[in-house]
Amino acid sequence: MNVPQKEIIAVAIFSVTYLLISGRSLKVLPLNRPASALLGTVLMVACGVMTPEQAYRSVDYDTLVLLLGMMLISAYLFLAGFFDWAAIWILRHARTPRQLLLYLTFTSGILSALLVNDTVCLMLTPLVVAVIVRGKLPLLPYLLTLAMSSNLGSVATLVGIPQNMIIGHLSHISFLRFSAALLPVAIAGLLIQFAVLRIGFRKALGDAIIHRPEEEDSRPINARLLTLTFSVLVLVFLGFIAGLNLSWTALAGGALVMVLARRDTHEVLKLVDWHLLVFFAALFVVVEGLTGTGLPDQIFHHISGLLGSSANSQLWNFAWFSALGSNVFSNVPFVLIAGKWISNFALPELMWKVMALATTFAGNLTIVGSVANIIVVESARKHIEVGFWDYARYGIPVTILTTLAGLLILMVLH
User: Fold this and answer.
1) How many CB atoms lie within 10 A of CB 99?
2) How many CA atoms are closer than 13 Å to the CA of 231, on its beta-carbon side?
3) SS3 letters for the chain?
4) What are the Cα distances from residue 124, in Å, to 118, 155, 338?
5) Residue-wise pLDDT tens for the chain (414 aa)?
């Protein structure tokens, strides 16, 4: 096969794969995201764009191992009743609906910084929805808070969201140095998001009365398992801070809990999001197939002049380009492609942090901007239909304001 033909086929396969994973199912080919990415992987090899060996080598196993380790720890926290307890605690201790909004904002944000944000939303949403509905509180502001806060809080660490895991592996920035820059950004973002939603829903929240949940609303706490899992989580983060390998430190933590918990591991492994792991593994292959054509490098060559030559101009221009690109191509594929450009910038480490900020905060722009948004909205579908504009009317100002504030903070810290 000659090179031009191979390039055309690779671009075509990537385009079809992206169309299928963009969140809009096609009637002729009703595949979910993992299945769509898997189809793209098979086509890359079957059509001769890549050899099986090249496909194997293109998978970033460090990211997959890190995801698996954090998912295992999250699963044990769920089985211990932690997520139920956290939701019930904030619902019991909030005196007013506005205070409840604030508590939920920081609970979702903090948990998403420590654990994978998609997992936090998957485990926390059903309980929050159930209690809010029973209490006859307006559901929409709390759903938006849960989703947006999980996106904003996850930017604070290299393990909060999958694209940060990829950035950590590609950039070799230490866990502590990354968080020192992005933690203030996350806090500022959470405060801005709370202010936007409090103002936007001031009438609905002002008229609401909080229902105090009964004891039976909460899953029983397994104190031994909770103590064990949190102890291991602390050890894992100490390992991160000490500069140990992120992936194997997380997996070692997950394995340690499995050994010491003395529970049926089948129950735990069922809670791991294997679909997400398959999705990322397949996506690595599809993106590498496109990268091999040289098209991403050609795109960067054409846009590099527009991004500027000074560090400040590159910071602002690349931030908005990343926000747009992550909404068009989805954040993980964009990071995989744009990550190859970072070494060409004036301050590469700063630009890694800018890309982490922009691609994560851009997830709040629309309802399909991040998987966390979709998880929250789908979990509440029986109770409320959240339309595109229902979300975007708050997501757009939150994204613009938090991105602006975050970039200013990065500039000051640098």
Assistant:
1) 14
2) 10
3) CCHHHHHHHHHHHHHHHHHHHCCCCECCECCCHHHHHHHHHHHHHHCCCCCHHHHHHHCCHHHHHHHHHHHHHHHHHHHCCHHHHHHHHHHHHCCCHHHHHHHHHHHHHHHHHHCCHHHHHHHHHHHHHHHHHHCCCCHHHHHHHHHHHHHHHHCCCCCCCHHHHHHHHHHCCCHHHHHHHHHHHHHHHHHHHHHHHHHHCHHHHHHCCCCCCCHHHCCCCCHHHHHHHHHHHHHHHHHHHCCCCHHHHHHHHHHHHHHHHCCCHHHHHCCCCHHHHHHHHHHHHHHHHHHCCCHHHHHHHHHHHHHCCCHHHHHHHHHHHHHHHHHHHCHHHHHHHHCCCHHHCCCHHHHHHHHHHHHHHHHHCCCCCCHHHHHHHHHCCCCCCCCHHHHHHHHHHHHHHHHHHHHHHHHHHC
4) 10, 19, 32
5) 455 788 889 889 988 887 776 554 445 566 777 888 899 999 999 998 899 999 999 888 888 898 899 889 988 988 998 877 877 777 777 778 888 899 999 999 999 999 888 888 877 887 788 778 776 788 899 999 999 999 999 999 998 888 898 899 889 899 999 999 999 999 999 999 999 999 999 888 877 777 665 554 556 788 999 999 999 999 999 999 888 888 899 999 999 999 999 888 888 998 888 887 888 889 889 888 887 777 777 777 777 777 777 888 889 999 988 888 887 767 777 888 888 889 888 899 999 999 999 999 998 988 867 878 877 887 787 788 888 888 889 999 999 999 999 999 999 987
- pTM for the complete prediction? 0.78
